[in-house]
Design goal:
single chain; 294 residues; mainly beta; SH3 type barrels; 7-stranded antiparallel beta sheet; 5-stranded antiparallel beta sheet; 1 helix; 28 strands; 9% helix; globular
Amino acid sequence: MKKVLLALALLIPLFFVSQMTTTHAAEGLEIRLIKADNVPLKSAASPSSATIRTLKQGEALKVTNTLIVGWRKVQLDAYTYAYVNNAYLGQQAGYTVDVPAYGKMRLAAKDTTFKTEPNKLNVTMKKNDIIVQRGETAPSTLIETLGGHKGYVPSASIATLEPTIRQVNLKAGIVVRENPSPSAKILYTLFPHTAVESYGQVPGGWRVIFHRTKVGYVAAEPMVAVKPVKRWINAANVQVSSVDSKSVNAVTDVLYYGVEVDAYASSNGWTYIKNGSVTGYVPTARLSTKKLTR
């Protein structure tokens, strides 16, 4: 009897590991290309739902396995989903690696008072304040202010915030600080020409950036806007990382040979790229200036 119980005790963890592995595999996302222009991206699986924006031919989307009456559920970022007519999805361009979400920059849509976690202090975020979403969208969403206050607010009180891509325009690079102050802790230094996601400015001449999975602050003036150029992935299974370094395992996506991307500034062997929902850094050597046939 003891041997039977011991065998069951050993099998039960294996069963749960098997279940977790199966679930993990089922959640893998394909990256598919849109095969027409002016395709509506919808907020729900219905032609009458609100159009978030229109998609262009060749734009990449992270596609889930969920199909509802001809509408495919797609992931826009770590916390946001939308729907596209399945008939407009073309060839597979890669796949997404399952990595933990580190947060997403958002904008306060209106003045909202909330209680902090865990201290239950009353804090107010003002309309147009830059905040960080730290949890899944639901009737209430976990957010963090730039002042470090965490708490839950109604999901309707936050709005999307699209970054501009800016590069360091100083030969010596520029330091990234923990807070918008010249005496704040230095996190690291950005190399010259490094491209980063910028989310606007805060008082004092500081620019808010999201880089290496963290919110940071840099002097605003030396950060100049960058226009993208067309480039093509020139190798099989090129990894896209949220970090411009090999020292950190932060791969988010994998792109196939020949996929077209918008490439921004290059620095220290890395280039920031974007195509639809796919954003991040790839080795500069993995980009071609000429169109490649898949």
